[in-house]
């Protein structure tokens, strides 16, 4: 497949690029600073610099002729307090550009706290831990919620991957999935496995138009 990867210089994004190349896909890695990509040159890798991800016109050239779009912008973007939203505006631009060039498949990273609470996690987690987390990172989660709303209202074939805390661990392929919800007791997952889930969603019909909770 021919893929465009947004957030390619982040921890999850780099894993997506590496795994996609290993799987013989052609990859366009969209970055602001090519020096941060830190992925070896490859004959099937094109690095595209885009300064303003909220500009749909700027995204059209990197999406034209692609089979699918993957976004790792939600995997740790804008964790600083009161940071300007990035993921929501970028997603609106992606969807507009995808419509113009006829790309139908989209797989993105969100976060577990944006999804529903899990009754099995217990009253303390649901009444204390999660509200504190959502308050501390409210700007990030509000941005991700805008992203999810835009995607759900679109006519593309989308997948939203919702991981809990991200760890710098390679792909194992051994993690739990909950379609339409979050993983009970899910506390963390390696960035390599988040990338694996993003790519798996492109080929598996079960992931189509679905939010998927993942965790080890």
Automatic annotation (TrEMBL):
Can you give the residue ranges of the NAD(P)-binding domain? 7-205
A GO MF term: riboflavin reductase (NADPH) activity
Identify the stretch annotated as signal peptide in this record. Answer: none
Full protein name? Epimerase
Please give the organism.
Answer: Streptomyces venezuelae
Lineage in the entry? Bacteria, Bacillati, Actinomycetota, Actinomycetes, Kitasatosporales
């Amino acid at each position: 497949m021919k893929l465009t990867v947004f957030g390619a210089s982040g921890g999850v994004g780099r894993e997506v690029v590496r795994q996609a190349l290993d799987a013989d896909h052609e990859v366009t890695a969209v970055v602001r600073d090519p020096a941060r990509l830190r992925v070896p040159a490859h004959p099937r890798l094109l690095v595209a610099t885009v300064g303003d991800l909220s500009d749909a016109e700027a995204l059209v050239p990197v999406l034209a002729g692609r089979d699918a779009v993957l976004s790792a912008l939600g995997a740790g973007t804008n964790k600083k307090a009161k940071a300007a939203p990035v993921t929501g505006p970028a997603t609106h631009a992606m969807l507009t550009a995808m419509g113009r060039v006829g790309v139908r498949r989209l797989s993105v990273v969100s976060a577990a706290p944006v999804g529903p609470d899990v009754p099995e996690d217990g009253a303390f987690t649901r009444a204390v831990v999660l509200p504190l987390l959502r308050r501390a990172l409210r700007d990030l989660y509000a941005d991700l919620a805008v992203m999810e709303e835009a995607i759900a209202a679109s006519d593309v074939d989308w997948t939203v991957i919702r991981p809990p805390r991200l760890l710098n661990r390679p792909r194992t392929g051994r993690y739990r999935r909950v379609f339409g919800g979050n993983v009970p007791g899910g506390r963390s997952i390696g960035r390599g496995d988040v990338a694996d889930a993003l790519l798996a969603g492109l080929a598996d019909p079960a992931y189509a138009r679905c939010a998927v909770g993942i965790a080890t």
